[in-house]
Amino acid sequence: MTVELDKLWTFANPAASEPALRDALSQAMGDDALILRTQIARTHGMRRHFDEAAHDLYLKAVEQASIAADDAVAIDAMHMLAIVETDPKAQLRWNFEALELARESDQPTTNRWEASLRHNIGREVSAAHRHEEALAHFRAAADLRAEAGEVEENRIARWMVAKTLRALGQIHDALDMQQELESEHAAHGKADPYVFEELEIIHRLLGDAARAADSAARRRAHSPA
Questions:
Q1: Helix (H, G, I), strand (E, B) or coil at 155
Q2: For 89-140, how does the pLDDT look when each residue is reduced to its tens digit (9 = 90+)?
Q3: Which one of 83, 100, 129, 192 is most buried, by most CB atoms within 10 A?
């Protein structure tokens, strides 16, 4: 692949990325054209615009990327297949396949995928009430984010760890982690309504109605309008 995808993507705004990808597609041929079509489909997937054509395109991208030994693109397409699938077992299968490739690949650009895939798998197995398994994936994601120096992403991963601890009945450990996150946000002049939401639940579980009410008020104050 000769096209440089990172220069075409604004990951926080997939709608804004589509025109740049389409412009590159107008000048691309062969494998590059297929990969760019896949990335355009990805912008729609991230916006929850799903259809069967996009599913088939991701499958073709996995096949083509595997032939070209482009592991990063194959993982990207697998991860998008996990998003467009409606069967939870199929979603999990694609994410596990992507994780296996990310861990086994010797291509440097694949390394960044493991934390995201761990997060996705953790959410999926948590939804199936497999909380111990989810906890292992969330902890691995948090460690990977810390190693990469990804501060905000690490906080999200630790929030997932704390939420899972709460689901496992480890209430005081969950409380400690959420309070730590609250302090970190406050130190930077920020507040996370999701942290307050968990603190509200935890305080209610501990029978502390006053603190639960205080956390609820903070959650409402800092929630988007």
A1: helix
A2: 999 999 999 999 999 999 888 988 999 999 999 999 999 999 999 999 999 9
A3: 192
* Cβ contact 36:24 at 8 Å: yes
Do 157 and 138 touch, CB atoms closer than 8 A? yes
Q: How far apart are CA 85 and CA 76, in angstroms?
A: 14
Please give the Cα distance from 160 to 163 (Å, whole number). 5
Residue with tokens 């990207």: 76
Q: Is 121 exposed, middle or buried (0-12, 13-18, 19+ CB in 10 A)?
A: buried
| Residue 164 CB contacts under 8 Å (≥ 6 apart), including other chains | 122, 126, 131, 134, 135, 138
Residue among 141, 146, 145, 108 at smallest CA distance from 126: 141
Number of residues that this document lists for the chain: 225
**Which residues lie below 8 Å from residue 153, measured CB to CB, with a gap of 6+?**
115, 145
Token readout for 202 is 């935890």
Q: Are 160 and 122 in contact (CB under 8 A)?
A: yes
Amino acid letter, 214: D
Residues 135/165, Cβ–Cβ less than 8 Å: yes
Are the CB atoms for 138 and 118 separated by under 8 Å? yes
Q: What is the pLDDT of residues 153-173, one digit of tens each?
A: 999 999 999 999 999 999 999
